[in-house]
Amino acid sequence: MSQVRTNSIVPIGGIPAGASGGGIIQIVSTNKVDTFSTTSSSFTDVTGLNVSITPRSTSSKILIFVSLSYSLNGSSGAMRLTRDGTAIGGGTAVGNRFSGLADTGGEPNNNNTDVTFAAAKYVLDTPSSTSALTYQVQIMTTGGTRKINANNTDTDSSGRARLSSQIIAMEVSG
Asked: Which of 76, 103, 118, 137 has its Cβ near the most Cβ atoms within 10 Å?
C-alpha cells in the first residue's frame, strides 16, 4: 500500500499572508567578479551589480542583500541602492547631506591604498507591484577613486586578491 506523508503543503506563491514564518517565493542574484572604478561625484551604476525580479503578488516584499568589496584613495563617498532608478533604503537627506545606504569614505591607514573594505546592507522593499523590478547598486566619491573588487593600486603580486561583490533579491510572501 502506498502512502504520502508530509508536514505541510505550501502554495506555489509561498506561505499565505497571516501564516506564521513567511515564505521565500523566489531568489535571484548576481555575483560580480570583475572590477569597476569611478571618480564621479554623482552616484554611478556599478556595471553588472544589479538584479531584476518580477514579484508574483502585489502583497509581496522584496528583501535585498548587497555585499560590496571596495577600495578608495581620496575623501568621502557612499553607496546606494535604486529600484528602477529611484533610491531606496537610505537615510534622510538633510541640508547638503544626501541619502545613502552605506558610507564608503574616509582615508584608510594614512593613505594606504592597498586596503580593501566590505559594506554589507539589507533593504526590505515593499514595491506593491507585479511588474519586473530592477535593483541597482550605485557608488560615488567626493574625491579620489572608488574601485570595486580590487585595491586601488591593483598590483599584480601574490599578496593581492581580486574580490567579488553580490546583490541578492528574495521575494517574501506578504
From this structure: 137
